[in-house]
Amino acid sequence: MGKRKKSTRNVGGSKKREPLDTVFKCLFCKHEKAVTCKISDGNATLICKICGQSFSCRTNALTAPIDVYSEWIDATEEVNAGA
Ligand SMILES: [Zn+2]
């Protein structure tokens, strides 16, 4: 009765690699995946394809789209706080 269990474990054979997020939810019209981020030569631009809101800021070599998006959130909150 001694059927041996094979102890070969499949570790992470078909793990999907997620691409970096480059589309985000718009802070103004609240549409998911409406805001796209473009980074080029030290500048990043976020544009909402639904309502046309845009935001741009300086970047460095390590800046990812999500960082630009965070900047946008901060900037928006500042505006809201001041208004
Ligand atoms: Zn929008």
How are the SSEs placed, and which strands pair?
Elements: E1 23-24, E2 35-40, E3 43-48, E4 54-58, H1 65-82
Antiparallel strand pairs: 1-2, 2-3, 3-4
The chain binds zinc ion.
Zinc ion is lined by residues 26, 28-29, 31, 34, 48, 50-51, 53.
Task: List the main descriptive attributes of the protein structure presented here.
single chain, about 80 residues, alpha+beta, N-terminal domain of TfIIb, four-stranded antiparallel β-sheet, binds zinc ion
Write up this protein.
- By secondary structure, the protein is α+β, with helices and mostly antiparallel strands.
- The chain has one helix spanning 65-82; strands at residues 23-24, 35-40, 43-48, 54-58.
- The mean pLDDT is 87.
- It contains 1 helix and 4 strands, in the order ββββα.
- The radius of gyration is 21 Å and the shape is elongated.
- Strand 2 (35-40) and strand 3 (43-48) form a beta hairpin.
- The protein has a 4-stranded antiparallel sheet, with helices on one face.
- It has one domain: N-terminal domain of TfIIb.
- The structure holds zinc ion.
- Residues 26, 28-29, 31, 34, 48, 50-51, 53 line the site of zinc ion.
